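Progress report, Aim 2. The chain analyzed during this reporting quarter is listed below.
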Amino acid sequence: MANTFATNQDGRHHQRTPTIPFARTSRHKPRRWPLALRFIKGAIHGAIIVPVLLHAAFAALIVALDHNVKDLGIPASIIPSLSIVVGLMLVFRNQTSYNRFWDGRNYLTVIITSVRNLTRSFLANSHRSPLADRVETDRIIRILIAILYATKNHLRAGWGAEIIPGTAINPSTGNATLTPEYSDLLPRGLYGCDDRGLGLVLQLTFFIEQYIKKGTDNGWFHAPQASQMQVQLNIMVDAYGKMETIRLTPIPVAHLIHQKQVLALFGGILPFALVDQIDYWAIPVVMLVMFTLYGIDAIASQLEDPFGYDRADIKTDFIVEDIRSEISVLLEEWKKAGEQGYEMFVGRRQGAGCGGRGQIDRADHANGPF
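Predicted structure tokens for the chain:
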């Protein structure tokens, strides 16, 4: 069962109770209108309305001049040659942008997979550890979750969460912005180096590496196992670097300039080629053609940076929250299994279920090991 629908007191039917893993990410509102009739939420009409209207006004001017001043028509045979150029440029732009979107989602999955693998290994190998070692494991699992948040915020230029606990620094104003979502997961006393060029993600990976080294020295992990953990950590950092590349490498400005100029040129020539054949109908036809072309260009522009807040971007916030819930359940089950002496996921009374609350909250942090 993917989602549980519930009708609230107002009679609305959008309220849901998460019942599955990735409940937030897979959540979809029922569509009241066909997609072809949507013009606001999720659509790009607002971004293209101005250039489309300008081309329509220019087409109306050409039609009026053609009727009242002189014949301005040109052979329509020029349109196919220009259409090929415009089509090739838009195909290249759209394909490149979607590749960035798809690669960004895959690299995020790589980081999530590494966090899952490391969490499983750390918890499984410290199940019967002394209390002091279990406290350290709890601390490291929280840091693994914090890496997901730090990656998301780093890609959005939301730096500084470790400088002022519970805040992030707005890069444009330099002012603190409240982001309490993961400050409770960071080690107490952590000082950041964002102002010196070191991102929080790389900084947190040092804690993971040190934990693996300590576990090897103390006999928690044997050497081949520790080597595999380091491989997972390296894969995580590699994916993080590739996501940075997507974020920091825009489409070359020369290509963007030329594409905009070619679109404007095509829209400017189109009325001259249509006025003799379809007269006043040239105005709505130009609007429809330019609406299509500018729409494709606007979609590509949104997909170029897939880590933002647009509706078309990757649902990074929901994905990270779902993974936090998943790992929180593992951590709660691990804690209770260690305290009560049973094996994880077995040995409890029937129907008890996994974990407790299934979420690390600030009350945990207040009583935790940091």
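The two ends are 39 Å apart (CA to CA). The beta strands are 3-6, 15-18, 167-169, 176-178. These observations will guide the mutagenesis work planned for the next reporting period.
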